[in-house]
Write a structure and sequence with these properties.
The complex is a heterodimer. Chain A is mainly alpha-helical. Chain A has a single domain (38-311), classed as ABC transporter involved in vitamin B12 uptake, BtuC. Chain A has 13 helices and two strands, in the order H-H-H-H-H-H-E-E-H-H-H-H-H-H-H. Chain A has a two-stranded antiparallel ribbon with strand order 1-2. Chain B folds into two domains: 3-236, P-loop containing nucleotide triphosphate hydrolases (Rossmann fold, 3-Layer(aba) Sandwich), CATH 3.40.50; 254-489, P-loop containing nucleotide triphosphate hydrolases (Rossmann fold). Chain B has 17 helices and 22 strands. Chain B has a six-stranded mixed sheet, with helices on both faces. In chain B, helix 12 packs across helix 13 (366-379), helix 12 (346-352) packs parallel to helix 14 and helix 14 (396-408) runs parallel beside helix 15. Classes of the chains: A mainly alpha, B alpha/beta. Chain A binds chain B through residues 1-4, 6-7, 185-191, 193-194, 197-198, 200-208, 264-265, and chain B through 298, 300, 319-321, 324, 330, 332, 337-344, 348, 351-353, 355-356, 359, 362-364, 366, 385-390, 406.
Chain lengths: 313, 494
């Protein structure tokens, strides 16, 4: 009886973030006619896709009671390497696949530092964040790489549409479903939650903690690289400063979605809602002509309110 | 100081935990407060010390009605609660802990180290324990940490000290020291409220026993005039019968054989075997290396040399995963730290060790999972609202049953139990003994590490005694008794 009761209140709390999202959308729609157009909603969703992909990976990492600060740098390094390969004549499709592999490997390195190197996640990924950003600068000489040719695949990823729906949005939805399945229906998902909930207990129950942590970092790296490809496709060039500060938006989205920063508790659809809240704020405040300085303050307060209301759980 | 609590009611939400609870504490007596887990002992004491406020009832201290608003007020009146989870700061020194918030300061508000050191040494000396006040807390044994807590209580001039399961983490010799300290406190007029599940200790130490059942005061008995059976009857409201249920099962071939197992400074040349359907009790003082030996067998603690054989074949075990593949299960001594994901449901906890059974190609089969968990709840009599019930909200006994359920269905050949009934009340203890017997009857070889001698004697077919990392002897049930086990455990010969 109590179990059922608890489930209902759980759902209400899950709905809390959704209600906040709807209120924001409705509120801004009332004020701004430009905001409430279909094409703006599509572009809002497209804008959210990059943070969304990164935040999904980040959710897995945070669920294991860790953090990944290196996502922005992984995005930058894998993307400039991709751009470098394309401008050197490697077929775009192959270069993009390689970029995904590179991103995965870069993420796995953080995982190795955390597990085999026994560094705290914060420190380990602070190190990779710094090193990868430096490597990006070295590789590009600090200058953007722009002669990317005219590849169809590259253009498709960020700029393409399917039935008028942007490809990044389709990717976001498909990958969301993938993450939902991974976290809720597989033994790996259980290992992720168990590792964050009580790693000692998980280890004694036969869960391979190190493997789980390395994999979540690899996933996070992969997602960062994928987000980088969308960005590359949309911008048509690779800046060495690409992705700087993206880790903060991703962590904010995870926190908004109700995932516990100490691991073990959280839902992937919470993160999706968190991503959308941030996207609506960014897009809506821009359309309303709010100065970007004020935007950051407003975003900060929204996160504060979300986290405070979360504490009541 | 005399305390009388009567007619105390307390509810949390719709859940009434105390209903007409109370007891009378006399001057300079050691008074045991007993009852099953959830009977309301701790809640009653928390009301006395101002942690909770009561809904109804009266508290009379030395003839005056009182109502402490917080623990500080109670402390000022001379009532101190020493909790089971010690309330010390592990990274600070003994004296820093003793003077926390009451530092002796000189001019300009700087701490007067010298004066504090002197007072700390005096206070510790009065207890007759040798602890260096400059030592960092985490370097002390649990027994010593507890002494520091008692010392802290005396430094605020406590007239009443409440101790919740004080011996749960103590070695036999530390327990002896604690009892001596309690006796001398009693002589100096301090009253002690002693909350414990350990009957033997209570009958040795206390003057009177008050019993709570389901939040209600049931009665008080003078120690020499009562016996364990009467107290158990008061606690559970019925006769429990034999404390250790009979086991009639055939002992088969050797399943696990350990030889030459060594980890320098921890354990040395450990050798023993366990047979199918047998319960091997492992006894020894706290810190003798029993837990470490078991952790090593389960692959959770690296060791230097040694051989493990399962069913006559040598196996390599370097991780819990390999141990599980070889049919070994392990129930750890601390279910809250290592045994359970407390914030997760019963279902997620039971499923965790059984993931291979309830999945195919790494994809979970939710129906299989639900069936397994429902079966576990039913077969092990876990009292709960269903598979969703969060483990945090279960009693100690039911939490322990969840841990058992987690392992029972992995079909272990060998099941290692480290303190399987610690912090579990009498009724649930008996249920756990029955679970152990059922497993033995199914041919599981069971190793049971326990610090409770009556339990070891009541449950084991053989008893292995460990002292300072060395197996001092293995005694058959027929010859085992408290004396020869303690003799071996403390370094004597039999």
């Amino acid at each position: 009886m109590e179990a059922n009761k608890k489930k209902i209140t759980d759902h209400i709390q899950d709905l809390g973030a959704l209600i906040a999202l709807l209120l924001l959308v409705i509120g801004i729609s009332i004020i701004s006619p430009e905001f409430r157009t279909g094409s703006n909603f599509l572009s809002l969703l497209r804008q959210s896709s990059i943070n969304g992909l990164i935040a999904f990976g980040m959710t897995c990492v945070i669920l294991t009671d860790a953090i990944d600060l290196s996502v922005g740098s992984v995005l930058a390094l894998s993307t400039v390497l991709c751009a470098g390969m394309i401008s050197a004549g490697v077929p775009a499709g192959a270069a993009m696949l390689l970029a995904l592999l590179i991103g995965t490997a870069l993420g796995a390195v953080s995982g190795l530092l955390v597990t085999k190197g026994r560094l705290q996640a914060f420190i380990a990924t602070l190190i990779t964040m710094t090193v990868y950003r430096g490597a990006t600068m070295i590789f590009t000489g600090g200058k953007p790489i722009s002669n990317l040719g005219d590849s169809f695949v590259l253009k498709l990823v960020g700029r393409g549409n399917l039935f008028r729906i942007p490809i990044p949005v389709i990717l976001l939805v498909l990958i969301f479903i993938g993450f939902y399945f991974l976290l809720n229906k597989t033994t790996f998902g259980r290992a992720v939650y168990a590792t964050g909930s009580n790693w000692k207990c998980a280890k004694l129950a036969g869960i391979n903690i190190n493997k789980t942590k390395i994999i979540v970092y690899a996933i996070s790296g992969f997602m960062s690289a994928l987000a980088g490809l969308i960005l590359l496709s949309r911008l048509g060039s690779a800046q060495p400063t690409l992705g700087a500060g993206y880790e903060l938006d991703a962590i904010a989205a995870v926190a908004l979605g109700g995932t516990s920063m100490s691991g073990g508790r959280g839902k992937i659809y919470g993160t999706l809602i968190g991503v959308l809240i941030i996207a609506v704020l960014n897009n809506g405040l821009n359309i309303l002509g709010v100065s970007s300085y004020y935007q950051d303050v407003i975003k900060g307060f929204v996160i504060l309110i979300a986290v405070l209301s979360d504490r009541k759980r | 100081m005399q305390i009388e609590m009567k007619g105390i009611d307390k509810s949390f939400g719709t859940n009434q935990v105390l209903k007409d609870a109370g007891f009378v504490l006399g001057h300079g007596e050691v008074h045991a407060l007993m009852g099953e887990n959830g009977a309301g002992k701790s809640t009653l004491m928390k009301i006395l010390t101002g942690v909770y406020t009561k809904d109804k009832g009266t508290v009379i201290v030395d003839g005056q009605e009182v109502d402490y608003k917080n623990p500080q007020e109670a402390e000022k009146a001379g009532i101190v609660f020493i909790h089971q989870e010690l309330n010390v700061l592990f990274d600070l020194t003994v004296e820093e802990n003793l003077f926390m918030g009451k530092e002796i300061t000189g001019k300009f508000g700087f701490c007067n180290q010298k004066a504090m050191r002197k007072k700390a040494e005096e206070a510790l000396g009065r207890l007759g324990v040798r602890i260096n006040p400059g030592e960092v807390m985490s370097n002390l044994s649990v027994g010593q940490q507890q002494m520091v807590e008692i010392c802290k209580a005396l430094m605020v001039d406590a007239k009443v000290i409440i101790m919740d399961e004080p011996t749960a983490a103590l070695t036999q010799s530390e327990t002896v020291v604690l009892f001596e300290v309690i006796q001398s406190l009693r002589k100096s007029g301090v009253s002690i409220v002693y909350i414990s599940h350990r009957m033997e200790e209570i009958f040795e130490l206390c003057d009177r026993i008050s019993v709570l059942r389901d939040g209600t005061y049931v009665g008080t008995r003078n120690i020499p005039e009562t016996n364990m059976n009467e107290i158990v009857k008061l606690m559970i409201g019925r006769e429990i019968g034999e404390r250790y249920p009979q086991r009639n099962c055939k002992i088969g071939d050797t399943v696990l054989k350990v030889s030459g197992m060594t980890k320098k400074g921890v354990f040395e040349d450990v050798a023993f075997e366990v047979k199918a359907g047998e319960v091997l009790g492992v006894s020894g003082l706290m810190g003798a290396g029993r837990t470490e030996i078991m952790q090593a067998i389960f692959g959770n603690l690296p060791y230097e040399s040694g051989k493990i054989e399962i069913n006559g074949k040598e196996v390599q075990i370097k991780s819990p995963i390999q141990a599980m593949k070889n049919g070994i299960g392990f129930i750890t001594e601390d279910r809250k730290v290592e045994g359970l994901m407390l914030e997760e449901s019963i279902e997620k906890n039971i499923a965790l060790a059984n993931l291979p059974i309830i999945s195919k190609n790494h994809v979970l089969d939710r129906k299989k999972e639900r069936d397994l968990v429902t079966k576990g709840i039913k077969e092990l009599h876990i009292r709960c609202f269903g598979p969703f019930h969060e483990c945090n909200n279960l009693s100690g006994g039911n939490q322990q049953k969840v841990v058992f359920a987690k392992w029972v269905y992995t079909q272990p050949k060998v099941l290692i139990l480290d303190e399987p009934t610690r912090g579990v009340d009498i009724g649930a203890k008996k249920e756990i003994y029955s679970i152990i017997n059922d497993l033995a009857a199914k041919g599981v070889a069971i190793i049971m590490v326990s610090s409770e001698l009556p339990e070891v004697l009541g449950m084991s077919d053989r008893v292995m005694v460990v002292r300072e990392g060395v197996v001092r002897g293995i005694i058959y049930k027929e010859e085992a008794n408290q004396e020869n086990i303690m003799t071996l455990a403390t370094g004597g010969m039999i």
